[in-house]
Design a protein that fits this description.
Order of helices and strands: EEEEEEEEEHHHH
Strand content: 25-35%
Structural class: alpha+beta
Radius of gyration: 23 Å
Shape: globular
Number of strands: 9
Strand order of the largest sheet: 1-2-3-8-7
Helix content: 25-40%
Largest sheet: 5 strands, mixed, barrel
Length: 178
């Protein structure tokens, strides 16, 4: 069958790795209560079933969206650019489709998690920290670590120094009490 303007040549699809799993980016074109549909590179269909979406993202059919229970600003709806894991690639003739997942913390709306290979955005870090027991101090530390900035490094060093100083003070106090 000859290639036409409406049928992309197969070599166009060589931009995708051939062996899953791998991260890719797509734009949401359909949202259902049990799936998210996307287009990758404007031509490749991808689907993410509800069973492959992490528990903190909940379907909101009235909004035609999936919304994070941890961060209401993390909304996946039509037009949202999403980072997702590709679990399988299926080719039938000239048609290619992807099956994906949103299980990992580095997957979701790009405006929240950032693009693959870039530092994670602050909101995603806060979302992850929300799940941890240590609360605000953990969230601040993770933001500094993900940013990799000098201020973050300095704050970590100062935190360690303060901790050691407290331990010395406690030890001296115990010695005096005995």
């Amino acid at each position: 069958m000859p290639e036409s303007a409406s049928t992309p040549p197969l070599h166009t699809l060589q931009v995708l790795p051939t062996i899953p799993p791998f991260l890719t980016v797509g734009v949401v074109n359909k949202v259902g209560r049990d799936f998210i549909g996307l287009l990758v590179a404007g031509i490749v269909n991808a689907s993410i079933g509800a069973d492959a979406i992490r528990a903190d993202l909940a379907s909101r059919p009235a909004q035609s969206a999936w919304v994070s229970l941890c961060n209401p600003r993390h909304v996946i709806s039509i037009g949202t650019t999403v980072v997702f894991d590709v679990l399988s690639v299926t080719q039938t003739g000239q048609f290619v489709s992807l099956k994906g997942a949103l299980r990992e913390p580095d997957t979701g709306a790009v405006e929240v998690v950032g693009y693959p290979g870039q530092p994670r955005k602050e909101v995603a870090v806060a979302e992850e920290a929300h799940k941890e027991e240590n609360g605000k101090s953990t969230a601040k530390r993770k933001r500094r670590e993900s940013a990799g900035d000098a201020a973050g490094e300095e704050a970590r060093e100062n935190g360690t120094k303060k901790k050691k100083k407290k331990e010395k003070t406690k030890t001296k106090k115990r010695s005096k009490d005995e």
